[in-house]
Amino acid sequence: MLHPTEIISGQIIDSLRQRAFETEELRSLPKETLDLIYKERWFQVLVPKKSGGLEYTLSQAVQLFEALAYADANVGWCVNLGAGANMFSGYLNEVVSKNIFDHRKTCCAGSGAVRGRAIKTTGGYKLTGRWKYASGANHATHFTANALLLDESGAVLVEEGQPMFRSFIVPKANATNHKNWKAIGLKATSSNDFEINDVFVNDEFVFDLKKPSAFADGTVYHFPFLYLAEINMTSMITGLAMHFMESYEALAKAKKPLHGTVYLSEDDVAQTIFQKASSNFLEARLKMYNLLDSVWDYYERKETPPEDLILDFRKSVNSAAKLSRQLIYELYPLCGLNIVSEQNEMNKIWRDAAVVSQHYLLSPMCEVN
């Protein structure tokens, strides 16, 4: 697979890393970084071409997200989540979609949790709720939210024996951004709570991600959303692992452990740990991308992939995430006390990885058996 430096230029990577600690202090992406995102149209990579977007293949998008995570996790996370939410453009009718998403600065922040209530009314719904972890809230132009559907009497609507829910998109003016995100990593992602109170949402701004799009023909809008979300999240931790691995290699050539007589790169114990962790990680990453291509080819041909291929693909995504974490946590103890400083680059990668790993899609409890 391509190295992150083959996806985005070394100059861009260097500029993002140079601003990384300043970005953390701001707890929000700075103007210079946002201007770069808008210029490169990274928020539009999963928007349909007919809505003004770039409509990348999933492999292209995932490699971009990984490369940005490799550069700086705050940027990678915001682009990953923002572009992923902007993909909902493919689930809206073409006029609505183009009106909202044919703008470089359009960015949706939202939540996948069903935490709101939507009461049916003439022409739409009255939406109320509070949702957590809306990454990119500080630069978002719109918010997306999932809510249970209620009829006019307030009774929950049922579909195939289950409570019905739908997804909603509203302009930021109709939502309250609580600016309450404070975490040890991903500090600048502004993953805040947001709240919507009794706001009318027209039917045209309501969509259903549980089914393939009825409006966009592109493969990404017919690819199962769960599989897409799983590999998007995994690209964050693989990008961080790649950065940590390379940072460790540089450190190992210059650092002798306390009471040691040779550099880490020459120490048998350290080298055994590094070689095993890095080779396992790189092999898992390659397998994940190869299986993504295989599964994608079926959907490109409008065919359903064999169940065993889908299972292998999802297991490969789980494995890549697991081995990324293992690489970081197995190399971390070799790095000495310098790495405990918050101003140490490897400490930042470690902190960001710790927060990324808490996403429920990366939990061992979500692993496919």
Automatic annotation (TrEMBL):
Keyword Cell inner membrane attributed: no
GO MF, one annotated term: flavin adenine dinucleotide binding
Signal peptide: none
Protein keywords: Oxidoreductase
Superkingdom assignment: Bacteria
Record flagged with keyword Oxidoreductase: yes
Pfam family, one: Acyl-CoA_dh_2
Domain Acyl-CoA dehydrogenase C-terminal: 235-363
Record-given protein name: Acyl-CoA dehydrogenase C-terminal domain-containing protein
Top-level taxonomy: Bacteria, Pseudomonadati, Bacteroidota, Chitinophagia, Chitinophagales
